[in-house]
């Protein structure tokens, strides 16, 4: 296979963007095989924009058409696992949009089914993993350059969304339609990066605000305390009502500290001696000199790296990587099975806030689904009034 014929399920903002990239030849080894959407207006749009691309209003029909080798699921979150499984049943490769699903139980079903089809490519659209800054950050942490992690702190509030955003469609910002708010819509990339780079926490305690500054049922403000089980802790903060916004990720290690500013600048401070060694051997007199800035030698070195990012490149990189894996076995940037980790962490944050207590990972999946169903039932009752 030289050209992967991709079927796009859902021609919304993301699906439309991907279609444009592929149609204009920006994605190596990939062409548009078909487009599917249940909105009649999208059929008219495709007839004008992509007249030679088959259009379907039923994704099963598209999967069975013979026109696609692979699909991407740019649809509401609950549908990702189900649609990917249906693709695999028909020996079609699947690229799942983030998040992999709303709750871990359904994502496990997807992962388990995908495991029965090892010959098929299963990937997830974690495009931030292609960002050179975060790739460099992971390399530094994995190589132990700042030692063992003691604390992580990520404030990512650059998701400002006005009420008009939530009014775009009935499923958005609902428990029944979207399965949550900022944790499942805006922040999944950062939740994935956090666990990809720093590892999964063992416990979570969260303070979450639902409809805090927006007229929505789901969360628009999150503060989560993470316990990594080895003494290290973390804080994750995100929101959709900060119009100025902050993106600052800090990782403290025994041998130094890393600060990421605005996902563009990487500041690496490497201690010449580990903090543990300094603590064990530094005299109080030398410590006093340090406090007053009188130490004769530098205790750390600093490296600052600046990264530029061109819009769309990361998405194209994921699509090309997906195609390359199908064509020649190039390793995936993000295997589809990786999607469960971010969902597990988001579920833990939700469950902690609902129960008003610390929760351990892995969480009680049945309890999570039961609590989620309560939220959905309450939501339906309000709509019916």
TrEMBL record:
GO molecular function: nucleotide binding
Residues annotated as domain GFO/IDH/MocA-like oxidoreductase: 134-258
Gfo/Idh/MocA-like oxidoreductase N-terminal domain span: 5-118
Record-linked Gene3D superfamilies: Dihydrodipicolinate Reductase, domain 2, NAD(P)-binding Rossmann-like Domain
SUPFAM superfamilies linked: Glyceraldehyde-3-phosphate dehydrogenase-like, C-terminal domain, NAD(P)-binding Rossmann-fold domains
Pfam families attached to this UniProt entry: GFO_IDH_MocA, GFO_IDH_MocA_C3
Entry protein name: Gfo/Idh/MocA family oxidoreductase
Organism expressing this protein natively: Ectobacillus ponti
Higher taxonomy: Bacteria, Bacillati, Bacillota, Bacilli, Bacillales
């Amino acid at each position: 296979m030289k050209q992967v014929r991709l079927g796009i399920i859902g021609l919304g903002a993301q699906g439309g963007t991907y279609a444009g990239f592929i149609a204009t030849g920006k994605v190596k080894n990939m062409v548009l095989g078909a487009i599917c959407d249940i909105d009649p207006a999208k059929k008219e749009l495709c007839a004008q924009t992509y007249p030679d691309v088959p259009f379907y209003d039923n994704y099963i029909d598209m999967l069975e058409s013979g026109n696609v080798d692979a699909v991407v699921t740019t649809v509401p979150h609950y549908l990702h696992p189900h649609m990917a499984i249906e693709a695999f049943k028909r020996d079609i490769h699947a690229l799942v949009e983030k998040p992999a699903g709303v709750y871990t139980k359904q994502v496990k079903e997807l992962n388990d089914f995908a495991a029965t089809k090892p010959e098929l490519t299963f990937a997830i659209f974690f495009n931030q993993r292609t960002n050179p800054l975060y790739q460099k950050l992971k390399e530094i942490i994995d190589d132990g350059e700042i030692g063992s992690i003691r604390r992580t702190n990520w404030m990512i509030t650059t998701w400002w969304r006005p009420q008009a955003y939530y009014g775009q469609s009935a499923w958005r910002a609902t428990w029944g339609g979207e399965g949550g708010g900022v944790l499942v819509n805006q922040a999944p990339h950062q939740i994935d990066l956090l666990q990809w780079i720093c590892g999964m926490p063992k416990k979570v305690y969260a303070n979450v605000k639902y409809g805090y500054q927006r007229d929505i049922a789901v969360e628009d403000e999150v503060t989560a305390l993470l316990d990594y089980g080895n003494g290290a802790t973390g804080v994750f903060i995100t929101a959709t009502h900060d119009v100025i916004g902050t993106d600052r990720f800090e990782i403290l290690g025994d041998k130094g500290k890393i600060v990421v500013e605005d996902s563009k600048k990487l500041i690496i401070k490497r201690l010449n001696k580990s903090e543990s060694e300094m603590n064990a051997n530094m005299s109080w007199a030398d410590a006093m000199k340090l406090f007053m800035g009188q130490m004769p030698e530098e205790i750390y070195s600093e490296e600052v790296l600046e990264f530029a990012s061109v819009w769309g490149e990361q998405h194209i990189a994921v699509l090309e990587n997906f195609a390359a894996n199908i064509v020649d076995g190039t390793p995936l940037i993000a295997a589809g099975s990786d999607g469960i980790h971010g969902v597990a962490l988001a579920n833990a944050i939700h469950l902690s806030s609902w129960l008003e207590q610390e929760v351990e990972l892995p969480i009680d999946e049945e309890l999570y689904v039961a609590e989620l169903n309560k939220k959905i039932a309450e939501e339906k009752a309000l709509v019916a009034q």
